[in-house]
Write a structure and sequence with these properties.
The protein is an all-alpha fold and 134 residues long. 75% of the residues lie in helices and 0% in strands. The termini are far apart.
Length: 134
């Protein structure tokens, strides 16, 4: 009887972890979609990958690998790539004034983000402003 309860608790814990990973996967896909919108204008840039964000999230949660570097280094690289993609979108997309100002504000907000959750929230907002130009 006791063993059965332990198995049930482990199954619930595993289901919770799987759900968390799925939401992280979704966040990673949103990040990748945003980068692809901007980086399509400059083929010299490295392709976007959701694993960049997922590696940062794992490193922040203590699940990362040493060869990925520190969370600060990964965050700096993400900020640089987001900034480059956003600058390319502002330059090449035919944006109205409201969307262009929103992306300029997004550039400022990226500078002051401190973790992956803030990045995810900012990217989610920026996707809205580039929706009609995808």
């Amino acid at each position: 009887m006791r063993l059965k309860k332990v198995k049930e608790l482990n199954n619930q814990k595993n289901m919770k972890l799987e759900k968390e990973e799925k939401t992280n996967e979704t966040k990673g896909m949103l990040y990748e979609a945003y980068l692809n919108r901007g980086l399509r204008f400059d083929r010299r840039q490295k392709r976007a990958s959701k694993m960049e964000l997922l590696n940062l999230m794992n490193t922040e949660n203590g699940k990362g690998f040493k060869f990925h570097g520190s969370a600060e280094k990964q965050l700096k690289e993400l900020k640089e790539r987001l900034t480059k993609a956003t600058q390319l979108m502002i330059k090449h997309l035919d944006l109205d004034d409201v969307n262009e100002k929103a992306l300029i504000n997004f550039l400022e907000d990226i500078k002051y983000s401190h973790n992956s959750e803030e990045i995810v929230q900012l990217v989610d907002e920026a996707l809205y402003f580039t929706q009609e130009n995808k």
